[in-house]
Amino acid sequence: MEDKLQQQLDMSKATPIKCDNCENSTFKQTLIISKLSALLSPSGQETIIPTAVFACEKCGHVNDEFKNLAQ
Known about the structure:
Elements: H1 2-8, E1 27-36, E2 47-56, H2 64-70
Antiparallel strand pairs: 1-2
């Protein structure tokens, strides 16, 4: 199924994403770590939540559009 999807995508029509800070166009995957209080946690205990996002390889900036995906 993945091969079929790749055949249907025309990457020449895709818009490249650049770093909002330095205009670099390459990114690496990293984590944003959030803490959920015991009052809000389903387990009743304070919880640490790691969320994968993309950071600029050049300056380390995380674009807002990537942060919004993590929320």
